[in-house]
Amino acid sequence: MNNYGLDLHGEMLLEEYRTQRPLFEKLKHVAMQQLGDMLRSSGIEVNSMEARIKDERSLAGKLLRKGYKYATLADITDVFGARIIAFYNEDVDRIASMAETLFDIDWDNSVDKRKMHQFDSFGYNSLHYICRLRPSSAAHCSDGNLKDTIPAALYDIRFELQMRTALQHVWSAIQHDIGYKTEMEIPMEYHRNLSRLAGMLELADNEFSRIRNAISEYRYRMQSLVQSGRLEEVPLDGDTFQSYLNLRPFDKLNRQIAAVNKAELHDAPLMPYLPVLRKLGLKTLADVERMMSADYDDAYQLALFQLGSTDIDILAESVGLQNLCIVHVLKMGGGRQGLVQLFDTVNGKKPQNEVLASMVFEQARRLSFKVKDD
Amino acid sequence: MNIIINETEGGMTAVFSGRLDTPAAVKAQMDIAPLLENADREITLDCTELEYISSSGLRLFLTIRKETAAKGGKVIIKNINDEIKKVFMMTGFFNLFDIQ
Fold it and tell me: How many domains does one find in chain B?
């Protein structure tokens, strides 16, 4: 048994801790299971989730410093502590809101450190909730066996749930590493430097949130424009092309090509064609529509020429767009080399692309649209 | 049509020879069972001796691809002749596989 130099009261609390340690282990298991379920169902991506039970030495240190404040072990609310490190301030708020429905919150002892600073001071920012398991929530835990094995005493134990952003965590972890607890412990100069960094990270947190919100708004606005058919206003990028693909713009051509051999259409990703379309100089979704309109018949004729004499009855859903791109390259005078570049972009650079380009080039020369010789 | 399957370092190799037409593909569905069981690994389809592939053959390759995608493996198709390349290209399946 270690001698931590505690008084009798401290020793009694420490003995209580040793006896209850298995209960804390169980609490940790149940609480983390519930928090994990909560995050999964919310779809919030977090940086990490951590949990720890205060070790004996650390608890003894706390009792040595201020053991007189605690009548029983139940008064120490951070023997078990969990921490969720999110990416954005808004996610911290959402997680807190969900935690409020999951656990009983001891509001008198919970604290939002983010709101404790003076308007001109910066420092530790984190949201701390003092919680208890709630029987009704534990019953819905994804581990079905768990709820039957939760001892009633577990619902009485309070624990601490810390919620913060990754940047807040970085500041806190470094401050902890430096060994700085209060402004009295280090010279004012260093305290000022830490505060300055806290302010900068707070600013960075807000900026990340602002950027995320701006991107969400952009996506929403572009989706609305795509859905309302205002394609002239929609730049061609990864987000807008995906929204456009959701409208299945190449289905008509695919079905017409598939009808040649009564073929089934197999799922295939079309996003690999986005860089091709951009290399072809298309700037907006309206440009894509114009290309489809101009090259539709020739793309179909190419497919008819390729497939008409075969009995192939399975095609990828990329076949229509692939043929549109081939025809467009050839009509623009890209020639064999243009086709090599197209296949390099879609298939990755490989020697077979030269062979494919030559095959397609020779096929296309026999069709009615004008293919410029290279 | 013949398929010889060997375990290699890090994966499985299936050597196809002959014509992978519809009757051959039906039989091959059973032959490829060891590949599907090892779909979490790298599966190489060596087509050096493969002369022809039908739609059923394409479906067979797609089955292997689907299984590897689900289990975290990978399919590599090696040494297909120009006619089979043409089939993969004009059906739009070329970029679905790692064709070497």
Answer: 1
